[in-house]
Amino acid sequence: MKAQQRIQRLLSPLLQPFIAIFIGLLTGAIAISIVGAPILETYKELWMGAFGNFYFMTSTFARATPILIIGLGVSLAFRAGVFNLGAEGQMVLGAVSAALAALYVPGPGIVKILSALIAGITVAGLWSLLAGWMETKFKVQLLISTLLLNYVAVLFASFLVSEPFQDRSGSAALAQTPMLEQAAWLPKLFAGMSLHWGFIIGVILAIVMYFIFKLTSVGYEVKMLGLNPYFASYGGVNKTKVLLASMFISGGLAGLAGTVEVLGTQYRFVDGALTGPGFAWTGMMATLLANSHPLGTAVTAIFLAALETGAMGLERNTDVPLEIASVIKSVLILLISAKISFNWWKRMKKGRDKNGMV
User: How far apart are CA 341 and CA 92, in angstroms?
Assistant: First the structure.
């Protein structure tokens, strides 16, 4: 009986993302029927494009890696009641820092990899911490500062790879760093596949964060601060300390996502290669769908990545356009917006009721 209760408690947080995914797929079925394609056959092709064989499955997991790690960082911030919308800039700044560390730190491959990981996490964490410091020192709203700092970080990284650190060895003169030496690449999990050790890092982080939130006093403080900052302060939680720590770790994880993409997939920093696919905003969507639950974020990250990889196979093999995945993602965004608006309305109504009672 106790084992059954434990399983129920473990699976109950995953119910919300599965419901959201179901509604998204149901809406996608309506869109598919409008274009005149068979629904079951279309979804079968979508599934085959994402998980149809071992190569496609590993490609989906590789696509999910940065989404998962960014989603975990955002989930930590959201659980602490911190609105970190700067994951894109933090990811890009961490990625370019990691690439430069791997290029110019002397030593064998393992030293370069560790230096890149430390540089990517630290620089992105400090960039995120800057927004947190401005919040605590000057009351600059995080919602605004993190969003605007994205532009600064992305444009600064673009300048670095367009001017002082540009690879000028080729004739194309693209805005990118030189190629990393092979010893500094993250190892692949399977020969000939795109999946690398960054995915394992993401899965381990999701499990560790789940147990931290569930079993440790640190996780309790973060949760209490997010639920009720006044009660948390009354209970002895140092609001400023938890906020700054959450911002640093959240930004550091976004930087880690950019780092593993550079070390495991691109092998150099390429201007626009991380912002184009929308990893940061998809990671934010993943954690919002999962209600900031680490394991739920892993599930939704893989689902969103499967939509993208599966849609490419769908367009190759059927007459259904690639944009069907965007339709499903748009419905998920609407569900997220509706949930946030409903929660805001409930809080406002509760506040008005209390004022009326007084």
Answer: 30
Tokens of 137: 């020192």
Tell me the backbone φ, ψ of residue 188, rounded to 5 degrees.
-80, 150
Contact between residue 89 and residue 150 where contact means Cβ atoms under 8 Å apart: yes
Q: What is the residue-wise DSSP string for 65-127? A: HHHHHHHHHHHHHHHTT-----HHHHHHHHHHHHHHHHHHS-S-HHHHHHHHHHHHHHHHHHH
Does the domain made of 62-328 have the CATH classification 1.10.3470? yes
pTM strictly above 0.90: yes
Contact 8, 280 (CB under 8 A): no
CA distance 84 to 246: 10
| 42 within 8 A of 320, measured Cβ to Cβ | yes
Confidence band, pLDDT 50/70/90 cuts, at residue 338 = confident
Say how far residue 325 (Cα) sits from the centre of its chain: 18
Domain borders along the chain are: 62-328
pLDDT in tens, 11-48: 666 677 777 788 888 888 888 888 788 888 889 988 99
